[in-house]
Amino acid sequence: MKRQNQSSVFDFILLGFSNFPELQRQLFWVFLVDYLVTLLGNAIIIVAVSLEQSLHIPMYLFLLNLSVVEVGFSAVIMPEMLVVLSSENTRITFSGCFAQMYFILLFGGTECFLLGAMAYDRFAAICHPLSYPVTMNKRVFLKLVIFSWVSGIMVATVQTSWVFSFPFCGPNEISHLFCETPPVLELACADTFLFEIYAFTGTILIVMVPFLLILLSYVRILFAILKMPSTTGRQKAFSTCASHLTSVTLFYGTASMTYLQPKSGYSPETKKLMSLAYTLLTPLLNPLIYSLRNSEMKRVLLKVWRKKVDLHTF
């Protein structure tokens, strides 16, 4: 931010889908419903895990952290996006754009590492069940959670500060719905080649390395499950892993298409749609995936609902 005074741009204009005004009006209501359902779904998981003592184990505490990330992710992106879609005032200040990019990277980076930690937790529980209480004790769990959040903060601090150290001398129109790194970087009035190398390398390390470790963990898990003598045991193990694997595929697949694509690989409209895939769908679907595919979560949610009904009854 030190070089902001060298820029002639003091705010940005988010173009959204301005070429398709009818589409914008329709998308506003779709995104509004998406936002409300996302907040409600993740809030239910946070409350259920927090209140239910039987869920105070690493698997569900990781899920609680993931839901906190999804709520933060949506809260950073969706309100500004709804303003862009519903009004002609689509300006965002320089500092506002900085803050939005910072928290997008913070929550996105944290989610990458949390998903990796959750894969390790499932690997330890299924492949080494006897030593699991020692392997994934409270101290190890806290270290993994803290590492995930601190890594997200470091990624966001370095990348956002670097992007906004470039001078911006016009134009100031961002062909996007929010301040994401690639479209903002296109407006910089400087040679960004070195940053692009850093960003590509960083994305490989932050996105692809955890993703490969997750895949390796699940290969080991698959072999361990196939060796189980009990059909019920295999089904339970598959059930606990399927939710996480679905989330991993959804998040990593769409995020890598956005951040690892060639600079001119896709049209601006296609890039916007790919960004929406991981900024809208992942936070929305995660609570549904984990609550509908997990028998323990369904049991607890039903228990919480019955308590609520009983309170209203009496």
The separation of the N and C termini measures 57 Å
- Rg estimate, integer Å: 21 Å
Secondary-structure-derived class: mainly alpha
Strand order in the largest sheet: 2-1-3
Outline type: globular
- The averaged pLDDT comes out at 82
Please summarize the sheet with the most strands.
3 strands, mixed
How many helices? 10
Beta strand count: 3
The run of helices and strands is EHHEHHHEHHHHH
Helix content: over 70%
Which segments are poorly predicted (pLDDT under 50) over 5 or more consecutive residues?
Answer: 1-5
Provide the β-strand percentage band: under 5%
Name the features.
globular; single chain; 10 helices; mainly alpha; 314 residues; three-stranded mixed beta sheet
Protein model, in words:
The chain is mainly alpha-helical and 314 residues long. It has helices at 21-51, 58-86, 94-127, 132-135, 138-163, 181-185, 193-226, 231-259, 268-292, 295-313, and strands at residues 11-14, 91-93, 173-174. Strands 2-1-3 form a 3-stranded mixed beta sheet. α3 packs antiparallel against α8 (231-259). It is globular, with a radius of gyration of 21 Å.
